[in-house]
Design goal:
alpha/beta, 8 helices, about 220 residues, binds 2-phosphoglycolic acid, TIM Barrel
Length: about 220
């Protein structure tokens, strides 16, 4: 099986103590060569969690960013802020971010020219800005049907394959090879089937990633 990417999106499920404690547990997690693990804590705990995991091969990434370096971006998270604390990747346009922000995808216009790695979430293929994507740095896409997020209802493998292979063929016409993850109620019972698909390059896990045992099971399921 080719390498799979597993991202734990902690959203706002965990407070400070719980985030630190989960990070310490994760520092004991032994990952295999064919898995790449990333976790995304609340912004306030990014630095601390990143320090705890700095000696592991788990990458800590941001849940969002709002500008490259705007000094007037009150309440925002800039790429400059992230780089200062050695965070080198961010989720972009997560469906929960979309509820709060009008056009979270607009950050792509700033970060693609700079080559800042990101994980772009989408619910519909038309939301993917194919013509602005490139292979010069690592871009990851994540298909997250909104009805499957946090609901316990996972998309069927047939549906996931259909969407992923459609996106993959559009990317390949552009000469791009960009991994596509699936997200939406991934848990230890359904991850094996999802991850076994060649069309699926990994999973973006919300709720189940906030419990060490569940996340470990998902990571070890490959
Ligand atoms: P969920 O969240 O696994 O809790 O459905 C996925 C996500 O929002 O990234």
């Amino acid at each position: 099986m080719k390498q799979k990417i597993i991202i734990g999106n902690w959203k706002n499920y965990l407070g400070h103590k719980e985030s630190v404690s989960l990070a310490h547990s994760l520092s004991e997690l032994v990952t295999k060569d064919r898995t790449r693990v990333m976790v995304s804590p609340n912004h306030l705990y990014l630095n601390e969690v990143n320090q705890i995991l700095s000696t592991t091969n788990i990458e800590v990434i941001s849940q969002n960013l709002t500008s490259a370096e705007s000094k007037s971006d009150t309440g925002g998270i800039t790429l400059k802020n992230l780089k200062e604390i050695n965070i080198n990747r961010s989720l972009v346009a997560h469906s929960e971010t979309r509820i709060r922000e009008k056009n979270p995808q607009s950050i792509l216009l700033e970060i693609i020219p700079i080559g800042f790695p990101f994980v772009l979430c989408f619910e519909e293929i038309k939301q993917i800005p194919f013509n602005t994507l490139n292979d010069d740095f690592e871009i990851i896409l994540a298909y997250e049907p909104i009805w499957a997020i946090g609901t316990g209802e996972t998309a069927s493998i047939g549906h996931i394959n259909e969407i992923h292979s459609d996106v993959k063929s559009k990317l390949s016409k552009l000469g791009l090879n960009i991994p596509i993850l699936y997200g939406g109620s991934v848990n230890p019972s359904n991850c094996k089937e999802i991850l076994a698909s060649d069309n699926v390059d990994g999973v973006l896990v919300g709720g189940a990633s906030t419990k060490y045992d569940l996340f470990k099971e998902i990571v070890n399921s490959i």
